[in-house]
Design goal:
Strand order of the largest sheet: 6-5-4-3-2-1-8-7
CATH architecture of the largest domain: Alpha-Beta Barrel
Oligomer: single chain
Number of helices: 13
Shape: globular
Structural class: alpha/beta
Radius of gyration: 20 Å
Largest sheet: 8 strands, parallel
Distance between the termini: 37 Å
């Protein structure tokens, strides 16, 4: 059987755009797979929110992320890309992080060039390290792959916000030259910028579709025409889940039954109760 990284690499070589809803725990990842999507991304923003109820400002640790990722990867058979933030330290830390993500079952680890503590790419106040330091992080991540870690590397830059389009473009080109498997130019501000970066950066690129974010929320067919390989939707499921829970809580607070809940049988099926009962029956000894 192909490994997660091999399955992701195969997807990237077949062309076309992959729609990628992002997960935050094992259950959301399983729902993504059940809905027929071919891959998912474990979002740092969403994990920080779901696991800690804290903002994506570098408060969550490597240990917490890799622990969450292990559960996510065990719950699904589709490739999972993991948000590895800044690598949680210097280049040597980034190499260890990539190795740890590979051991947890991730198909790919994303390393970015923000100053630690990092921030969500569509919030204010973020800053990036020098281009030389950014390249060192990516070089270390690629070295981890070349030295045996069974994982792909996604290299991300947030330089557009502070240093402009040309610097961010130059960083992505350099990341690709170093051997990054996927590049991620965060927060382009126009469709024209998106078209140019896809035309000039070699290899697969990822679009980040944040509702009410800085980047135009283009339809999938347009993203594919521009040349993107992956369209990530990092907050769609988290935001939808929070809204649904708020509505249910408001109904309960008003003394009403919560509407829109799943049938109990469907919930049991999603969580695997029938499979568990079937397997348990194999070991019955009475």
């Amino acid at each position: 059987m192909a490994t997660p990284s091999e399955r992701l690499r195969q997807q990237l070589t077949t062309g076309g755009l992959r729609i990628m809803p992002c997960c935050f725990d094992a259950l959301s990842a399983r729902l993504i797979e059940r809905a027929g999507f071919e891959l998912t991304f474990m979002s740092g923003f969403a994990v920080s929110a779901a696991r800690l109820a804290l903002p994506d400002t570098g408060l969550i640790s490597y240990g917490e992320m890799v622990d969450q990722g292990r559960n996510v990867c065990e719950a699904v058979s589709i490739p999972v890309i993991g948000d590895a933030d800044t690598g949680y330290g210097n280049a040597v830390n980034a190499k260890r992080t990539v190795r740890g993500y590979a051991a947890a079952g991730f198909a790919c680890a994303m390393i970015e060039d923000q100053v630690a503590p990092k921030r969500c790419g569509h919030t204010r106040g973020k800053a990036v390290v020098s281009r030389q330091e950014a390249l060192a992080r990516v070089r270390a991540a690629v070295d981890a792959r070349e030295e045996g870690a069974d994982i792909l590397v996604m290299a991300r830059t947030d330089a557009r916000h502070e240093h402009g389009f040309d610097e961010a473009l130059a960083r992505c080109k350099a990341f690709a030259d170093l051997g990054a498997d996927i590049t991620f130019f965060e927060a382009p501000l126009s469709e024209a910028e998106m078209e140019r970066l896809c035309a000039e950066i070699p290899g697969p690129t990822m679009a980040n579709m944040v509702e009410q974010g800085d980047t135009p929320l283009l339809p999938p067919e347009r993203l594919e025409a521009l040349g993107y390989a992956i369209a990530a939707y990092p907050l769609t499921l988290l935001s939808s889940a929070v809204r649904a829970m708020n509505e249910a809580l408001a109904q309960l607070a008003a003394g009403e039954p919560a509407g829109g809940v799943l049938e109990f049988a469907e919930l049991r099926e999603i969580l695997g109760f029938p499979d568990y009962d079937e397997e348990q029956a194999r070991y019955r000894h009475d």
